[in-house]
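Chain entry —
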Amino acid sequence: MEYDVARLARTLEAQVRGSVGADALSRALYATDASNYRVVPDVVVVPRDEQDLLTALTLAREAGAPVALRGGGTSMAGNALGGVVVDVSRHLNRVLDIDPGARTATVQPGVVLGHLVAATKRHGLTFGADPSSASRCTLGGMIANNACGAHSVAWGTTADNVRSLRVLTAAGEQARVDSLGPGGSGPRESTPPDPALAGVHAELGRIGQENATLIGRRFGTFSRQISGYALQHLHPDHGVDLARLLCGSEGTLATTLEATVALAEPPPAVVLLTLGFPDAVSAARSVPTVLPHGPLTMESINATLVERLPDDTRRAAQRAGLPEGRMWLLVEIGGADETEARSRAGDVAEAVRDGIPGSTAAVVTDPGAQAVLWRCRRDGTGLATRRADGAEAWAGWEDAAVPPQRLGDYLTSLDELMARYGYSGASYGHFGEGCMHLRIDFDLVTDAGVRDYRGFVEQATDLVVSLGGSVSGEHGDGRARGGLLERMYGADATALFAQVKRVWDPQGRLNPGVIVDPPPVDASLRQHGHAQGFPQRTTLAFTADGGSFAQAQRRCVGVGKCVQTSGGVMCPSYQVTREEKDSTRGRARVLFEMMEGDVITDGWRAQEVHDALDLCLSCKGCVGDCPVNVDMATYKAEFTHQFYRGRPWARPRSHWSMGWLPALARGAALAPRATNALTGSRLAGLVRRAGGVAADRELPTFAARSFTSWFAREHTPARGEGRTPVLLWPDTFTTYLAPEVGRAAVAVLEDAGMEVHLPRGPVCCGLTWVSTGQLGVAQRVLRRSLATIGPALRAGAVVVVLEPSCTALFRHEAVDLLPDDELARLARGQVRTLAETLAEVAPGWEPPQVGGEALVQVHCHQHAVLGFDADRALMERAGVRARVPDSGCCGLAGNFGFEDGHADLSRQIGERVLAPEVRAADASTEVLADGFSCRTQIADLTPRRGRHLAELLADGIPPAADAR
């Protein structure tokens, strides 16, 4: 559509109080969603309130601009891309009213489903449709797609639960539409429509009357027939239901301003029945057996997904009650109390075992164990995008549905079709309603691969249609399936879609190209663009992505777990700013657009990318929390290295001070008292400014005697036959800033019967140079240090590292820094945390019974790379009752929180959860934090001092132990 983009952008900037972006960074952030499609918007608007939204839509209409309303950006079919993108998730996100008596809630379109569920939970109510993206998807987007979810088998789709909508028409008029309810059970047809929609109502009634036979035969045939417009709500037998027609119309007919939705009342007790099967077809055959028992859910996951889970999560799932099998169904069963629910679940399990050979079952009642199993299902969207061998897999045929009784036939025939194309995929989905989600290893990069993709989805459509199914079961059509609608419904039905569109939107300005006049399914595929040819000149090896930086950037598929506002580590800066550019997803998109090159055009020198990465803490939370293990810290290190390549003078001062901290610390250790006197004097301000350190950050105090000096001159090492030698890595923080941690670790290791050695010479892992993007220096430092400990590594010695960030570097980044170095590979397998060392080297050692309670801040890098199981088990053995708050990153993150311009955000991150938890802890509760940064932040924000686990354990060891 032709219109004056620049003029509209200026007008919007002048009249909209929210943000308006026509710049490269804004457009890059919104160029795609969670689909395979890329359509760069002209302008991005983030309205501050409803009046702002109305103003933006009015100005766009007057300019003749196409408009796409956007919620959480999690749509998987390219449903809301291009033109003027209006993001309502940032500000139009209020729950306006909850009526427990009527069991309804009234919300703005940007309300996140998880927030609505939390608000209604206190009344014993919930919203029935609950997609796995509930922590970030919005009600407006759910209405647009007619979203379903795990519990829709019991409580219906979004359309089934919408009671009324207040909308803005394409003509700019506001109107209210009330649902007639399922089967026309709401307000009667005789209720006159809103005057603003009288003409629309009459015209749609005529279309329904004239095409009643076609509509009756092809629409509303089963619950997951989501594709196209829901024309069954125009059938004369049921009356014209405008509200339910708008559900699933993908923003192409009107704009939702407010919605009143029905709430469901969950049963008092719920147990989770996990059913195991040898294969997907066997699981599908069980559906007719289970459905008569009235399950609340009937969700599937397969072994491929479970194998892709992080190790600790997979082990937790097995402990929680995942029975034997290669395919599982998660079946929730309710009851008046747990006894009744367990009895009903037992009946289902018995019926399935009798009917399906090889099936297994387990009943899970513990809420924590249930949550672990549900995480396996929730993260399926992301987990399925990478095969175990690293190959990529994509959406594109991820949402088809068939009547549940035909699901087994569908899966059998689909397997045959995939085999003909040589495809494989991981599956999950809503078996109780016949909806199967798949990520398939399509080749969407090459021309031949794209041709095969199109051929496959066309044949798969024919298969689904032959079984009475729908190409979309809940994600909507968008660009992924719009081009298949005529194949599914026939030309006469799609002609009706066009008629309906013209009634609502004669000019075709609302989300054009979706449902009506769609582009081909293989148009605008983001993987098939210029990014695939981006020069692969990187310093890091990106071994997990086939050595390809471009492939690494394709990891992010936009599922948006990083834009949830609570829980987990990812993404700490976004959880404070709520800006898309500060999310892992946003940063990944900007890096992708840097490679694409038509919006962000300066490659490695792009200021837009630098700005998007500026508030990345390099915490690595995304490595552990993102279902596809996006590693933004590593991408930032590579980009920063390339950004400053050949121009070191352009680097910020903090790169020279904190990036070179290991070297500066060794110098300070020659005269620690003089150094501390300087940093504690009136000249400290000059020192901070010279080093790019925030003015209100206390400079660290150097120890009077370093840990290595103490070990060499004061400690009498425990030696003797029967002791296992281990190498203790003296990291910079432990050696020069916190030697008490090193001394405590020596006491613990020796008490456990080990012979502790230190490297014969100075060592450093190079972490500070990695985090500041000085990769050449990091490589040299790491290579030299590995050579120093090379004999121990070749001898198979365990290397104990006390600082989690250093441990994580050996286990994660080292092989990318030095991909051809044998010692880097050995270190990856032999470096251990203190707790891992004690568990593996001295399994029979009885730790001192320290007892008491401990509040534990798990370091982000430990959370992401190392896991916490060994530490938790060690504390349990020591009688320590550990509590790990869901605090996420402490906010300091090495150099980040010390840098000028970052300190305020750093403290805001720390104040989200960690600092209040520490302040609220009883004085007798130990505060444990193995990371030096975490301990520093705790001391800065609270009156308490954090301690390393080694110090806590050493408290229980008699002082004489050090003299042995």
